[in-house]
Design brief:
Blueprint: E1 9-19, E2 22-29, H1 39-49, H2 51-58, E3 69-73, E4 82-87, H3 97-109, E5 117-122, E6 125-133, E7 139-145, E8 150-160, E9 163-171, E10 175-180, H4 193-210, E11 224-232, E12 241-249, E13 253-254, H5 260-272, E14 282-285, E15 291-302, E16 305-314, E17 316-326
Parallel strand pairs: 2-3, 4-5, 10-11, 12-14
Antiparallel strand pairs: 1-2, 1-17, 3-4, 5-6, 6-7, 7-16, 8-9, 9-10, 11-12, 12-13, 14-15, 15-16
């Protein structure tokens, strides 16, 4: 029996960027703008009405298991410049630091916003950004000031096939498990990725089964999104704290960048442990040795939970403009994932 014909989709246009090596696909045409009263509602609308588009742009043969992208939306109100709904191989995230950096770079360089100060409404809240613009009018870097970040649990012991693993949980727009990769007998290097992907797939459900993972004010912000596997790195001076990490998120998706929202979550854990102070420079390197700089501006609280105000800075670069279609005769339809 022949497969059902695919719907006719396209053309869908995108502008593609990478931030510190991590891809980001910005939908620019051919798709309805997500509807709803605010960005969290538009995220839910996109999950219901635009998931074919997400799969088409993320799945092979047009994408791959580690693809990331977004739908651009209006902001929640006139006090912000842009809204955004992020998507990846599993669905729709509540935060994306590398994507925010790429989105602001795109918005300034295409003239959608003037800059250098840009306010972006993301599903986890309002993110204030500053673009550093060079003499040619290009964006050299973007610093985003994240929603309040906090540590929600420290030193949880989780049983895995590699034995018990000590895990902290931090929030930086999404919830992350945080693991010292040295306790696993591994390192932040490409050769360790298969083991770390497998472990992330164990840790997510195990953590969610052992502790309630939910934001104290926004109940839609819940569940473990990813796991930050970190190790110390050489600091450029005696004041800076430096680490390397690889963050595995969604369905075994590997972040090539140092992970922006994961960096905020890591800073919250470090501050809770008393190992980093307000104003201390933080340098975070990725599995491909790309860099985000970051820090803590101050302390605050979220429903009585100690929290920190974090910033993260990185650079994004345009990689191309695309025009995607789905041929209704194509037996692969909206595509496939191998991992």
């Amino acid at each position: 029996m022949s497969p059902e014909p695919s719907p006719i989709v396209g053309p869908i246009t995108t502008d593609d960027y990478h931030t510190a090596g991590e891809p980001f696909r910005i939908v620019t045409g051919g798709v309805s703008v997500p509807e709803g009263a605010d960005v969290p509602a538009r995220r839910q609308w996109a999950a219901t009405h635009l998931d074919l588009v997400r799969r088409l742009l993320v799945h092979e043969p047009r994408g791959h298991a580690d693809m990331y992208g977004c739908f651009v939306t209006p902001p929640n109100d006139a006090d912000a410049d842009l809204g955004v709904v992020f998507f990846h191989n599993e669905g729709y995230s509540t935060a994306c630091g590398h994507g925010t950096i790429a989105l602001v770079t795109w918005a300034v360089e295409t003239g959608r916003v003037a800059g250098p100060e840009i306010v972006v409404d993301v599903p986890s809240g309002r993110v204030r950004c500053v673009a550093r613009i060079d003499d040619a009018g290009r964006v050299a870097a973007v610093r985003f000031h994240n929603v309040p970040s906090f540590a929600s649990a420290l030193d949880l012991e989780v049983a895995t096939t590699r034995g018990p693993v000590a895990v902290d949980i931090g929030f930086g727009g999404a919830f992350y498990g945080v693991v010292d990769v040295r306790t696993l007998g591994l390192a932040v290097e490409p050769a360790a990725l298969p083991a770390l992907i497998a472990l992330q797939r164990e840790l997510r459900p195990a953590l969610e089964a052992s502790v309630e993972v939910v934001h104290p004010l926004e109940t839609d912000l819940r569940g473990i999104y990813g796991v930050v596997f970190w190790e110390p790195a050489t600091a450029p001076d005696g004041r800076t704290v430096a680490e390397r990490n690889v963050t595995v998120f969604a369905d075994g998706e590997v972040d090539r960048s140092p992970c922006g929202s994961g960096t905020s979550a890591r800073l919250a854990v470090l501050h809770r442990r008393g190992t980093i102070d307000v104003g201390t420079p933080f340098v975070n390197r990725s599995v491909i040795d790309s860099v985000f700089t970051a820090g803590i501006d101050g302390t605050t609280e979220v429903a009585g939970v100690p929290a920190v105000a974090t910033w993260v800075e990185g650079s994004a670069y345009r990689t191309g403009t695309h025009r995607f279609e789905l041929d209704p005769r194509d037996p692969l339809g909206d595509g496939f994932l191998l991992r």
